[in-house]
Sequence to fold (287 residues):
Amino acid sequence: MIDPAPSDAPDRDFSDTFTDLDPSAPALTVGELSTQRGDGIFESIGVVDGHPQEVEPHLSRLAHSAHLCDLPAPQPEQWRQAIAAAAKACGPGESVIKLILSRGVEHGPTPTAWVTAAGVADFARVRTEGVALVTLDRGYASDVPARAPWLLLGAKTLSYAVNMAAIREAKRRGADDAVFVTSDGYILEAPTASIILRRGDEFVTPAPSGGILQGTTQMSVFDHLEAQGFRTAYETLPVSALTEADNAWLVSSVRLAAPIRAIDGVPVAVDTGFTVALNEYLLSPRD
Ligand SMILES: Cc1ncc(COP(=O)(O)O)c(C=O)c1O
Fold:
């Protein structure tokens, strides 16, 4: 658990604000708004051989989500140190560190914050064989993020019940995962990943202003591709762009790059060599 410091507290050794807990023992009170209302925010950070990946982009997004949700801004150095402490508990191979900032106990004085470290599933197969997706209507038009900011569409909130329901629906339809689309026919994101499309030497992803999370993995992949001389772009992409692309991937911090092999039953070409190289890059230490 973390006793959250005010965002303007001077940087110092924050270890006296951390309490180690037994993960199998009770830790939250029943009045917690994270569990009662999903009222809080989180981040999932990939860890490779004890190295937490892309810590600063995750902390920036945590701060952005806090701002959108009217939660107190995190003190970045405190969270950096909490991540470093959690990383020490990770063994070799791949793990995940989760950061959680909840609104706390109803009428309580402060938010509740904690960090967890855990092992992850083996994603080797999905990274090579890829995923079949179905498009699912997200139920709103592309102008909604600007018209209704209280929907918190760019925030990574704890309210993931809809995202999990979409994955179950995709499985009911015989696919592995979903890609959300707006009711007026534009591509958004997958329930737990960003989407990247390849068109020749150009890689495109939906613009984050469209009410999706800006993916830390997508940003890292774009930097990597630009360094290799490829063009990258953020665009408003119609659903038809999915099957017109040369190749496509879901990218996220823990599963990394999963090639898309079909969309709504239409095959999409998988570039195995390119995907292997992309995942090698994503598994290399990244700050
Ligand atoms: C809805 C959604 N979009 C995109 C992403 C990808 O973000 P990142 O690359 O930072 O993991 C996630 C990750 O969990 C997500 O839940």
